[in-house]
From TrEMBL, chain A:
<feature type="transmembrane region" description="Helical">
    <location>
        <begin position="77"/>
        <end position="99"/>
    </location>
</feature>
<keyword id="KW-0472">Membrane</keyword>
<protein>
    <submittedName>
        <fullName>Amino acid/amide ABC transporter membrane protein 2, HAAT family</fullName>
    </submittedName>
</protein>
<dbReference type="InterPro" id="IPR043428">
    <property type="entry name" value="LivM-like"/>
</dbReference>
<feature type="transmembrane region" description="Helical">
    <location>
        <begin position="155"/>
        <end position="175"/>
    </location>
</feature>
<feature type="transmembrane region" description="Helical">
    <location>
        <begin position="242"/>
        <end position="266"/>
    </location>
</feature>
<dbReference type="GO" id="GO:0015658">
    <property type="term" value="F:branched-chain amino acid transmembrane transporter activity"/>
</dbReference>
<dbReference type="Pfam" id="PF02653">
    <property type="entry name" value="BPD_transp_2"/>
</dbReference>
<feature type="transmembrane region" description="Helical">
    <location>
        <begin position="105"/>
        <end position="122"/>
    </location>
</feature>
Automatic annotation (TrEMBL), chain B:
<keyword id="KW-0472">Membrane</keyword>
<keyword id="KW-1003">Cell membrane</keyword>
<feature type="transmembrane region" description="Helical">
    <location>
        <begin position="105"/>
        <end position="123"/>
    </location>
</feature>
<dbReference type="GO" id="GO:0005886">
    <property type="term" value="C:plasma membrane"/>
</dbReference>
<feature type="transmembrane region" description="Helical">
    <location>
        <begin position="70"/>
        <end position="93"/>
    </location>
</feature>
<keyword id="KW-0029">Amino-acid transport</keyword>
<feature type="transmembrane region" description="Helical">
    <location>
        <begin position="143"/>
        <end position="170"/>
    </location>
</feature>
<keyword id="KW-0812">Transmembrane</keyword>
<dbReference type="GO" id="GO:0006865">
    <property type="term" value="P:amino acid transport"/>
</dbReference>
Amino acid sequence: MTIRHILPAIALLLIATIPFTAPALQILLTLALAKAIAVMGVTLLLRAGQVSFGHALFFGIAAYAAAFVAASSLDDLVVLLIAGTLGAAVSGLIVGLFVVRYRGIFFGMLNLAFSMIFWSVLEKFYHYTGGADGLRLPRPSVLGLSLERAPFELLLFYVTLGLTVALGWFVLRFLGSPVGQLFQTVKTNETRLEYLGISARTTLLKGYVLSAALCGTGGILVAVAQGIVTPSYAYWIRSGEMVFIAVLGGAGSIPGAVVGAVAYEVVRAYAAAFAADIWQLVLGVFLLAVILFAPGGLAGIYEGLANRLSRRDAPSANRKPAAKEVHS
Amino acid sequence: MDYTIVLLAIFDGLSYAALVFMVAVGLTLIFGVLRILNVAHGSLYAIGAYLTASIGGAIFAAGFAPILAFPLMLIAAALVGILLGGPIEYLLLRRIYHKPEVLQLLVTFAVFMILEDVQRLVWGNQPYFEASALQMLGNIQVFGVYYTVYQLILLPVVAALTLIGLRVFLRKTLTGRLITAVTEDREAAQSIGIDANRVYLLTFVVGAGLAGLGGALASPTTSVLPGIGAEMIVLSFAVVATAGLGRIEGAAIAALLIGLGRSAATYTFPELQVLVPYLIMLAVLLVRPEGLFGSPAARKI
């Protein structure tokens, strides 16, 4: 146990007490953590050296799937989560079969194209999707119990927090597993992967489906928290935001994705009032600054500080590898 | 089906293809030389359109002759190329040529985010519409179908001149040959004394100017409003990917294919209109992953 592991645990505990210590922040953090789950999907792909400018596609698909299910008689939070995540995973498989043939520019831009297609379908087929106004997502029951607004929001907060921790842990386990190690080899040395007789495409596809499912889970939680789904869920601005948070948090770092999402949402909640018209501009400038001057992101800065702190007691004892940066 | 409808569809497709080509050719030229996909290209297109529509609206309201619309388009294109393209390459892209592709994409994406808001700040959210150039040239009757001269003749002619001009420029002139040399092998070109940095800067300015010109030419035919940049970058990427990244002549054929396909859909299945360009791209990429005219990249081991 070093300072490196204690601090995140303390931070998590602090977040878990938010509904009692700072109730005003509860809904904000629900949204932030839901986004964190979605950002994990983008972060995961960064570990394979790929960036997707269209992952809002899965965010939107899952949210709309949840809204359709909620309109039926099956409107339970658990059913919504399962249906939406499944929807995202299946569409991730279909889109993935196509995009894993590509790397780099094509990978990023084809994802963008898919998300723009879905966005225009949402806008055009308004008989089914409600067009630009979107669909209402009435508050679902939870395991058969219909809750009032306040307890439901409290429960949603803890469900989101629990899912963030559980899925974050799962993704870390995935990256540590043999499949996950192969997945990251797509970035470091894809040719060697194929020399081993392993299909780089299949490996990338596995990670892609997981990343789509993560984005989907985040999408459902945001949709349930906001009670409405609109085409903006799938628009490029949303995808750009996810990429931004992933890079801000530390490209490739899963805890970084969570920290990045929380920092982003909190800053936005207070700063957007002053900079609503130039929000994309501010994000763009920040993105440039992070890429050019702090490529490790928040996770990289944290690692640097933690290394400095723990240098005197444990110089090199089983230190975890530093957060992967986008540039290798 | 009535043959006039077929003709209309063909004319629509032709004029649309000409516009898309103007933007796509800049994108593919920049990629061919700099090996960077400029995501901000769509914003440069939008800014070219905004400049033309807003300045045009102001000077025609002040009583100037509508013929000035044409020099204005060239000025708008030059402004976009020099004032935006120049600094983007010089201050930003120059730092990242040696970085991985993903980072380069992120940097141009950040520029795209910035420029989208700059448009909103400068021109607001209301649409601009300024069609003096289109009205001035009037209509023409071809096989019993009336169509605007601007869209049926001027746009395709400008696109064709751009294509021929670029081809001649790259193959016959000294500067063009320098660009080709740097594209082939940057190190070898530098070792014989070619200033690769200047070539990159020049290429980016020209490419950005072409995007601006595309926007300027498009402005009389459509309302200029927020979001057109995002649509255009995806669309022109579809064209460039269908053709094969870096293929200039290929981009012309792909633009025609996509333009005609889109207008055919407009008259038969209007709901599919926005999807057709992407469906064409997906169909081509499924069969030829490197695009119609691209060559498979050799893998480094």
